[in-house]
Amino acid sequence: MIAGFAAGSAVRVRENPTELSIPIRQATKESAVARPQRCFWQRCRSGAADNGLSCLGRHAPKVDWRTAIDAKGRAIMKRIGILTAGGDTPALNAAIHGAVVRANQLRIEIYGLIKGFNCLFNPRVPHVHLNPLFQEIPELDPTKGGTLIGSSRDYIDPTRKEDLDLISARLLKLGIEGLISVGGDGTLNGLQPLAERLPTVLAPKTIDNDLGLNYPSEPDEWIRAKDPGAPHGYRYARTPSSAVFDLNQIVNYATPGYATAVLVTAQGVERIRTTAESHRRIAIIEVMGRHSGYIALGTAYGQPDIILIPEHPLDTELLVERVRHLYDLQKNVVIVCGEGIVDEQGVELGAESTSMDPAGNVALSGAAEALRAKITALLGDRYFQRYRRGSSAREAIFTRKVGHTQRGGRPILFDRFYAALLGSKAVDLLVEGRNNAVSVLQYNAAKGFHVEGYDANRFRDRWGLIHARQMHPALYDPLLMKPSRMGIDYLLPIFTDAIGSDDAEHMRQTLFDPGNLSEPYHSINTDVHKRIRYLEPEGD
Ligand code: F6P
């Protein structure tokens, strides 16, 4: 059980037409930061009596169920589509779950489109009815990582009008009146052209935590210059900011998936530390995040000695000086580096420029190895021989990539709770008649976390491009190479109580289940496959 919380009583939630009785946990002591609403603690998990979200939609339009007309006389949608796009995160099923529960309340059918935008490029449009008779299908488990409807990195090229026309015609044929894309900044870039054809909203997800703005005017700070070698024919750069950075102004404070990724990386640091300590070694741990250092920053919970982020160019001299000091003192050093870190000249240490994903993102790989080569060259073998701690620097310094384990597995409470709220809010945005909009997770000290709708265009620069959010420099202390005071203040609301007691209990009960040894793995794909329907019959 989480410190400060006692198992709770039941409340009746009147917003839900079915007035379900749901369990809650009562706060028994105040914490320094706002926590998720208590009435939701136990419900975003499989097996909960009401499937989770009966208190949602408090501010959504009131609907007359017999006529499917809201209080303003608007016909509400009868069928919407949902897809998950881009790299998976642990909280995708939770976002779908939130959308489905809200759709059930509003008596809207919801179709899951298989494998992201790939589904829409396929004339057969494989899809799954996620709520037949307004009941969520049992395969949809918000505590399970990944996405039961599959994902892909296929994306919509806004310049290909014929593709867009085909896609919207297919959606129309399927009876889809509005589309929810669960995705990141790449998906949001493709949203506008689709939104010109049918109501489209985005529910955010990404472990990188790079979908959002440090402050609302941030998109206006971008400038660009022609560069035939750059991905879109232009090189983009930032002008100095004239905004005062304030945590309360952040747009989309955290994205679902980020907290679970940090759990994995922080645990990784803790585990590597004991090896580094025992064998007097220097460990360099590479974490994901592309060009944003949020995952690296959050990994501070695992207490690495040094954190290097992509937003701050490497100061090799300072780094080696710090490594020497720490190694002399404690005979081991643990360094965390974001995969997108850059050298003094701004060159990415881990860029393999030959490899790009379909959305044009450079595949980053090898930052830790490149860093190891730099430190090895500067410390030299004699440094380690003198201490009798290995015969060479190469032997003493080792690297580990946390890799895709950051993206997978069971989402922790923070992620699944807010993913579900954001999915639910996306349905409300469609029903309210919003188009080209994003459900965002806002935070301020007075209100705690809450979800809002935000116009997608407010994320765009003046040429219409959405840039991945980079961590604000104020969150990092480049001398200490750790989170700054403000960085700590940023992390606290997300991570204090981010782990539910059931998260720990789940591991205790399932990992060493004797049945795991004899039973083969049963993939969700096997079950979902049986539910897939097609727009057109398979050709010969
Ligand atoms: O955007 C999420 C992310 O996990 C990044 O942190 C990482 O660079 C990338 O995706 C890896 O992509 P892939 O799974 O295609 O290798």
Describe the secondary-structure layout.
Blueprint: E1 5-6, E2 10-12, E3 21-23, E4 26-27, E5 63-64, E6 69-70, E7 79-84, H1 92-105, E8 109-113, H2 118-121, E9 127-129, H3 161-173, E10 178-183, H4 185-189, H5 191-195, E11 200-204, E12 222-226, E13 234-238, H6 258-279, E14 282-287, H7 294-298, E15 306-308, H8 316-330, E16 333-338, E17 351-356, E18 362-364, H9 367-386, H10 393-396, E19 397-401, H11 413-431, E20 437-444, E21 448-455, E22 476-477, E23 482-483, H12 485-495, H13 501-510, H14 515-518, H15 524-529
Parallel strand pairs: 7-8, 7-10, 10-11, 11-20, 14-16, 14-19, 15-16
Antiparallel strand pairs: 1-4, 2-3, 5-6, 8-9, 12-13, 17-18, 20-21, 22-23
Helix pairs in contact: 1-11
6-O-phosphono-beta-D-fructofuranose binds near residues 207, 289, 290 and 357.
